[in-house]
Amino acid sequence: MGVGTSTFVIRWINFLTMLLAVGVVVFGVWMSTHHDGCRRSLTLPVICLGGVIFLISIIGFLGAWKNSSILLWIYLILLCFILVAILVFTVLAFIVTNNGSGHSVDGLRYKEYQLKDYSSWFLNQLNNTHNWKHLKSCLVKSADCNNLSKKYKTLKQYKSAKLTPIEAGCCRPPSECGYPAVNASYYDLSFHPVSSNKDCKLYKNSRQVKCYNCDSCKAGVAQYMKTEWRVVAIFNVVLFLVLSMIYFVGCCARRNAARSQSKA
């Protein structure tokens, strides 16, 4: 790649990523002013991510602009760390999300989930009292369970609905309990549960309780997290390939900068 081409490409790529980083930081600041504690907990990671992107980008931009071999060396070293971190996280994400799948139930369009099916990492995280207390408070505040009666106005609509893993695990008792559904948000608990599953006794019709203390709810969250992690992992594969190409261009720019400095 030519001397001018590589530095020009690196310069503009990093200028654009600097703008992106500023946008990420602004988004993080906006999240910090949001009243939802669940979103507010993500503020620091988002702002730190934006700060790291900005730091690396400005080093790469200045290195290409000033044609500085030293700055480009620093840029490539930092970019290499990012590539390794993305690769490690992606591999771990695929390993962690390898286990776990839903179980079909006769008469239902959606699946039910069991916590024991998921990886030990998910089990440790979801069975941690502090972690689950925070997650449960977020679930209670969310509209997943509260909106079921609005989404499905008749019992027939509810029984034929394709519920999400969280709706299936946290908003209703497991099917094996045998509780008759009165509507989308209320079950007749006067019946003696058919199953010995402890979730049957933990479920309550109260909006604040539902099945948020159930293992089925934790399994639903695990399935949701598995799906999200898979999406992130696939995105990371694409990001890794893009950054690898940028790294290659950066190597050309650094080599060209070193040659220019040696001739000067």
Question: What would you note in describing this structure?
Answer:
By secondary structure, the protein is mostly helical. The protein is built from 11 helices and 4 strands. It has helices at 3-32, 37-40, 43-65, 69-96, 120-127, 129-141, 148-151, 155-159, 165-170, 199-202, 215-263; strands spanning 103-104, 111-112, 181-183, 186-187. A two-stranded antiparallel sheet has the order 1-2. The protein starts with a helix and ends with a helix.
Write the SSE topology:
Blueprint: H1 3-32, H2 37-40, H3 43-65, H4 69-96, E1 103-104, E2 111-112, H5 120-127, H6 129-141, H7 148-151, H8 155-159, H9 165-170, E3 181-183, E4 186-187, H10 199-202, H11 215-263
Antiparallel strand pairs: 1-2, 3-4
Keywords:
mainly alpha, 11 helices, 4 strands
In short:
With 264 residues, this protein is mainly alpha-helical. It is built from eleven helices and four strands; from the N terminus they run H-H-H-H-E-E-H-H-H-H-H-E-E-H-H.
